[in-house]
TrEMBL record:
Class of enzymatic activity (EC top level): hydrolase
Organism whose genome encodes this protein: Glutamicibacter arilaitensis (strain DSM 16368 / CIP 108037 / IAM 15318 / JCM 13566 / NCIMB 14258 / Re117) (Arthrobacter arilaitensis)
Identification of the protein by name: Iron-siderophore ABC transporter, ATP-binding subunit
Protein keywords: ATP-binding, Hydrolase, Nucleotide-binding
Enzyme Commission code: 3.6.3.-
A molecular function (GO) term: hydrolase activity
Signal peptide (UniProt feature, chain positions): none
Length: 258
């Protein structure tokens, strides 16, 4: 798989707040995402992860504060420039389009050449399935095809909303390793904390719309924070190879003394 030769983006959220009617979904969030890092956005259901990501995708609600990508204010960026700079992978819902893998990547407001499509499919290891109908792909292949679509303009920032959902453990690892190979900045909402610890460089922990912690995943997911934010008991274990894992235990198991 080849990697991009463009420079990864830097992202800055500065005092960002979002309200949906009377409900505050994000509350004064400030964070800087360094170029080239894979950054996990974690937190319980409804804590604001998708809302934070949506500020970068052009489908954002009204917000206060500023969001910049490479110093440029996202609110004044032209839609075409934003689409080129930022690749987006949303959670897939609804029926699959009746197209081949090649067509999925090629078709859009700015059609890609055959060479560009082939290059993009090679980046995600899907070149051999180029003529396959999208509807015939497995879950893991489909995620890679959707990732290829997100990469169609060679973005310098990827925004992914729970990209490992519905993937088995092998394909979860494969997808995260693929993200590492791409050498772009990646901001991705993840529910799997152990996966986040294993594969991400930086982590934003949200709770009730607020940024509770930001930093290296090992430092963010302390026992007390995991308990406070997720109401889950955890233990951080480091293997002989130096790999940290998070062991989780539900409140019921804890109460039962397991
Ligand atoms: N379009 C909307 N209208 C009204 N409220 C919304 C809307 N979108 C999100 N919310 C609310 O904003 C809060 C944050 O939602 P968001 O989807 O960003 O959370 P999340 O962390 O991505 O959740 P999940 O883990 O369940 O996907 C929630 O309370 C949610 O109900």
């Amino acid at each position: 798989m080849s990697s991009s030769h463009t420079t990864p983006s830097e992202v800055a959220f500065n005092a960002v707040s979002v309200n949906y009617g009377p409900r505050r979904a994000l509350d004064n969030v400030s964070a800087t995402i360094a170029a080239g890092e894979i950054v996990a956005v974690v937190g319980p259901n409804g804590c604001g992860k998708s809302t934070l990501l949506s500020l970068l995708t052009g489908y954002h609600p009204a917000f206060t504060g500023t969001v910049t990508v490479d110093g440029e204010d996202i609110s004044t960026m032209r839609a075409r420039d934003r689409a080129r700079k930022i690749g987006v992978l949303r959670q897939h819902t609804g029926p699959l389009p009746d197209v081949t893998v090649t067509e999925l990547v090629a078709l859009g407001p700015q059609k890609l050449s055959t060479h560009q499509v082939n290059r993009t499919l090679a980046r995600v290891g899907l070149d051999e399935l180029a003529t396959e109908p999208v509807a015939a792909l497995s879950g893991g292949q489909l995620q890679r095809a959707l990732l290829a679509r997100a990469l169609r303009h060679d973005p310098t920032l990827l925004v992914l909303d729970e990209p490992t959902n519905h993937l088995d453990v092998q394909h979860r690892f494969a997808l995260m390793e693929l993200l590492q190979d791409l050498r772009v900045t990646v901001l991705c909402a993840l529910h799997d904390l152990d996966l986040a610890i294993r594969y991400t460089d930086d982590m934003l922990l949200l709770a009730e719309g607020q940024l509770r912690a930001h930093g290296h995943p090992d430092a963010v997911l302390t026992k007390s924070r995991v308990l406070e934010v997720f109401a889950i008991d955890s233990e951080s274990v480091t293997t002989a190879r130096g790999q940290t894992h998070l062991l989780l235990r539900s409140a019921r198991a804890r109460a039962a003394g397991e």
